[in-house]
Amino acid sequence: MRAAAALAQPAATVDLEGADPEVAARIEEARRKVLESPEEAAAWLELGKLYHAHQLTEAAVAGYRRAAGLDSDSPKAWYFLALAEAELGELEIALDAGARVVELVPGYAPVHWRRGRWLESLGRTGEAEAAFRRAVDVDPSAAAGWVGLASILLERGRAREAVDILRPVLAADRTNGIAGQLFGRALLAAGDETAARRVLGMTAGMGAYFPDPWHEEVLDSVTGVLNRLQLLNARMARGELDRVIRQLEALRESHPEHVGVLNLLSEGYLQLGRLDAARAVLEIALGTDPTDFSTLIHLAQAARFGGDLEAALGWADRALEANPRLWQGHFERASIFYADNRLEECLGALERAMRHGAHQNPNAWLTQGDALLRLARWSEAATVLERATARFPFLAQAWVGLAVAEVERGRIERARAALETAAELQPEDETMSAVRTRIRELERAGGGSR
Predict the structure, then answer these.
(1) For residues 72 and 68, what is the distance between their CA atoms, to the nearest angstrom?
(2) How far apart are CA 187 and CA 362, in angstroms?
(3) Residue 155 — φ and ψ, nearest 5°?
(4) Using an 8 Å Cβ cutoff, are 399 and 421 in contact?
(5) pLDDT digits (tens, 9 = 90+) for 343-355
(6) What angle do CA 72, 73, 78 make, to 5 degrees?
């Protein structure tokens, strides 16, 4: 077995000159532990994870090899070794190490779908299919397994089967760009060109996240405050709020006045509606740096969420004084005006926000479109929301808003088409039902254009 033979190779050494001092200190501490206890598998495993988390992959492989050599029944040592070897392009060794994980923990789905990917890369599609099927047998919710299986079937010309497999995957996660692009290709191969082009457009440029708790354990070994913040920010974007907040609170203990830590923590508190907790950490951040843009924006949001719009506007203005070129300040003012029903001022602030880069943010388009709808400026609203759907095809609220604008303009077929696209992206809601009712009224009256 290639992985077993590799265990005898010596551990790598790494030059840490120029590294982040916190990272270097953690690695040096882990090194001391393996020197003190060279026969301790857990110490080598921790050293390997530290190397791995900081992209020192060859050194990580050496640490994992020693860990697996000392404890051949450690599934994580073999799994982490497989991941690292695969990152280095050593897929055959990765497969061997992964096979040992399967022997030890056959019920861990990620090892099966990762082996499926590696086998597929090597052109061993029959074995890859078996691995993907085992992944979904072990865990029917393992989207990576279904996506891998659909890829194999599509390659074999079984497009309809791939479509049937991928439809529930996308129903569970509309933002899964990998599944979406594969679904679009499968629809195209199955002859449904119209649906295919719509799906391909809606998921273009979108990524995907496939859960793998053991891999997350490696990522959790990352150290250095900026590295940690980058990791936790990505997890917060995936909605892992409770976990991220616990980790940020722990990070805050060692960095009690770090403005970045305090701001990301406040963002989590705000998303959970813990306004007092958010204000408390933001006051500390403000004391550290009274002109920090993010702190001032988050204070504005905390005030707005709490209904104190006058205070919110004051904080937003201070943020713009600190940096008038960032779109977030203008957008926050627009959000405050929107909440206060000052819709013309909202649109003015949004115009400035768009000029400074807010066009990249879907909420800016939604706010602009909704403000125009509330002002009954149907044609302008339709133009804005049509541009929003072109830029963010997966944004269900934009399609619903476009349907509202079109039906009020009497353009029944356009409204119906927008509504049907929205229905593919989200469950029916009151607004959608109201648009359907309005369409029926116009049809009974014989009004509206096709």
Answers:
(1) 5
(2) 27
(3) -60, -30
(4) yes
(5) 999 999 999 999 9
(6) 70
What's 14's DSSP letter? Answer: -
Contact in structure between 396 and 419 (CB atoms under 8 Å) = no
Supply the angle between the helices 293-305 and 275-288 in degrees, to the nearest 10: 150
Tokens of 272: 């959970």
The dihedral through the CA atoms of 143, 147, 150, 152 has a sign that is negative
Which residue shows structure tokens 């509202």?
404
| Identity of the residue numbered 101 | V
Q: Say what the pLDDT of residue 12 is.
A: 54
* Predicted local distance difference test score (pLDDT) of residue 10: 42
- Model confidence, pTM: 0.80
Q: How far is residue 424's CA from residue 276's CA, in Å, rounded to a whole number?
A: 38
69-74 long-range Cβ contacts below 8 angstroms, 24+ apart:
69/7, 69/8, 70/39, 70/40, 70/41, 70/44, 71/41, 72/100, 73/104, 74/41, 74/45
User: Whole-angstrom Cα distance, residue 145 to residue 116?
Assistant: 8
Which one, of 232, 179, 237, lies nearest residue 203 by Cα? 179
The beta strands (E) that lie in 363-412 are given as: none
Dihedral of alpha carbons 152, 158, 159, 161, sign: negative
Q: In 272-326, which ranges are continuous DSSP H helix?
A: 275-288, 293-305, 309-322
Maximum Cα–Cα distance for the chain, whole Å? 86
Fold matches, 2-169+178-188 and 364-450: yes
Domain segments of the chain: what residues? 2-169+178-188, 364-450
Spatial distance between the Cα atoms of 316 and 340, rounded to a whole number of angstroms: 15
Structure token digits, residue 362: 């879907």
Q: How far apart are CA 199 and CA 417, in angstroms?
A: 15
What's the topology of domain 2-169+178-188? 1.25.40
Rounded to whole angstroms, the Cα distance separating 444 from 314 reads: 51
| pLDDT tens per residue across span 431-443 | 889 989 989 988 8
- Both tokens assigned to 27: 């690695």
Angle made by CA atoms 180, 181, 186, in degrees to the nearest 5: 95
Burial 378-414 (b: 16+ CB within 10 A, else e): bebbbebbbbbbeebbbbbbbbbbbbbbbbbbebbeb
Q: What kind of fold does domain 364-450 have according to CATH?
A: 1.25.40
Average pLDDT over residues 144-149: 98
Q: Report d(CA 127, CA 308) in Å as an integer.
A: 61
Residue 269 predicted with pLDDT over 90: yes
Which pLDDT score, from 0 to 100, does residue 174 have?
Answer: 83
What is each CA distance from 78 to 82, 111, 181, 212, 342, in whole angstroms? 6, 10, 32, 15, 60
Residue 412 has phi, psi (to 5 degrees) of: -65, -50
